[in-house]
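Side project, low priority. Logging it here so it doesn't get lost.
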Amino acid sequence: MNKIIENFGLFDFDLNGSGATPSTRTVEIRGEDRTYLRQKQRPNFEHGNGEVRIVDLFCGAGGISLGLAEAARAFGRKATICLGVDIEPRALAVFKNNFPQARLEEADLAAMFSSDLDSPEFGKQELALRKSVGHVDILVGGPPCQGHSDLNNFSRRSDPKNRLYLLMARAAKVFQPTFVVIENVPGAKHDKGGAVASTMAALTREGYHVTYDVIDMREIGVPQSRKRLVMIAAKDKAHDIRTLLSAYRTEVRSVRWAIDDIQDEAPGSLATTPSTPSHDNKERINYLFDLDVSDLPDKLRPPCHRDKSHSYKSIYGRLRWDEPAQTITSGFYSMCMGRYVHPSRRRTLTAHEAARLQFFPDYFSFEAAEKRTALAQIIGNAVPPKLAFVFGHYLIGQLLK
């Protein structure tokens, strides 16, 4: 018997029909996450023995698709991105630059899909999409999360954009994928409109088995204290998220693990050029280094922090080499947005460093962002590809059983 063994996977898969068997190895991208992050050469995701067909909604620059493509590659499959949709043109430009064969559309998803989740009647655009996209293995999406965030003092989970979460259920009705994966911030569970509960109910009515859980990114080796709410809907059975994660858990990884080799990277590109701090922030950065501390005292902060009590200890702070970073947001260029001062250099993070902390490998190009503001938003809003790899790798293994 000609048996082909997957070297990096959760499953040893026999292409001649014996099926997939659980492995006790910890699964990392390409067998070793740290090496993956430092890869300069993009793999040929468009070649393989068979394919995994993906629809990626609210796709941004393609962080989820990248993780799924690496997962498909681990099984020798090509990743076919049948459709990616987002409303941000710069993010789509980055996606297209990295996945030139992907079918991408700049569009408002609220205009593409009906808001009536259970309507058996499909609109003209829904029917056209269903016909042109064809079979879908995995439907994924990361609906806008700012309205769900605990850091959002304006909407407090009542932002009308939160209802976009529901469109994932309508898209599942249209495309009938084998699996649906939806990610968001943990606060989405508390949306005042009940978006998560309504989505779960609609997917259940469509015949899916639905599970969800909050995942701490540190559990799967992402070197930042970021948590995400992940929902899986499957046609075959309910998949326990805690159980499936057991094959992918790693030790907690630090800032040093991710970026120690690029701290003296020469500026030159958009991604490697740090921001220039204001005079006041330069003085604050110097204080952190001159006294070798990680937290800025209130006396050196602006009046909004200096003159009243606050809980924002990490703001104006310096990253610690041997701990994970805080959540990487679009504010990583500025120390007033969080703990984003480099551990050993008198500056804030570069985009390259922030991308590494978000689990983007060096071969992934952000140059199509063109401007610093767009680049910061693209990286900060991205889903760490490692999260998509974990769920994609597990689900592809289920497809191949």
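Brief comment: The first helix runs from residue 33 to 37.
Revisit when time allows.
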